[in-house]
Design a protein that fits this description.
This protein is α+β, with helices and mostly antiparallel strands. It has four helices and seven strands.
C-alpha cells in the first residue's frame, strides 16, 4: 500500500538524501537523526496545496505500536508544512519504521493525552523541551495509528 501521486522531494538536500537511503535500505541505514544516534521514522503525506507526495524523517516516538509526530520545527514560531498536510488529510499517511511502510491515520492530541505523549517525545528526543521553551506556540503532537 502506498500513496499515489507525484513525489516531490524535500527542498533540503540532507532530508532528500536521508529519505532515499532509509527507503533503499529498508530502514537499515540513515535511520538516525544526523550525528545524534537517535532513531527516526519516515512519514509520507500528501501536500495540502499541491497534492504531491512529500516525505520526511521525524524522531521515532513509539509506544505500543502508535507513534507521536511532533510538529516542533525546532521551536520556530510557525508550524512545519507537514503539519498542515496531515491536518488537511489525516488518512493520507504512510509511516515507515523499519523495512516496510504501513498506512496510518493521525489525530492531534490535547489535554492529558497530549501531556503523556509529550513526555514520551521529550524522553525520546530531549531537545523538544528546549524547542517548546523557544516558541510561544504550543507545539502540536499528532498520534499516528496503523490502519487496518
Amino acid at each position: 500500500m502506498s500513496l499515489d501521486g507525484e513525489y516531490e522531494p524535500s527542498p533540503a538536500q540532507w532530508v532528500r538524501d536521508q529519505v532515499a537511503e532509509y527507503e533503499a535500505s529498508g530502514g537499515q541505514r540513515a535511520n538516525t537523526l544526523r550525528d545524534t544516534g537517535l532513531p527516526v521514522v519516515i512519514v509520507t503525506t500528501r501536500g495540502n496545496k499541491t497534492g504531491k507526495i512529500r516525505k520526511m524523517a521525524l524522531m521515532r516516538v513509539e509506544h505500543d505500536g502508535e507513534y507521536a509526530l511532533v510538529a516542533s520545527k525546532g521551536g520556530a514560531p510557525d508550524h512545519p508544512v507537514w503539519y498542515y498536510n496531515l491536518k488537511a488529510d489525516p488518512t493520507a499517511v504512510m509511516l515507515q519504521d523499519g523495512p516496510e511502510p504501513f498506512a496510518a491515520e493521525v489525530r492531534e492530541l490535547d489535554g492529558d493525552e497530549r501531556a503523556l505523549w509529550w513526555d514520551r517525545a521529550v524522553a525520546a528526543y530531549p531537545p523538544y523541551a528546549e524547542y517548546q521553551a523557544k516558541t510561544a506556540r504550543t507545539i502540536p503532537v499528532l498520534l499516528a495509528t496503523r490502519r487496518g
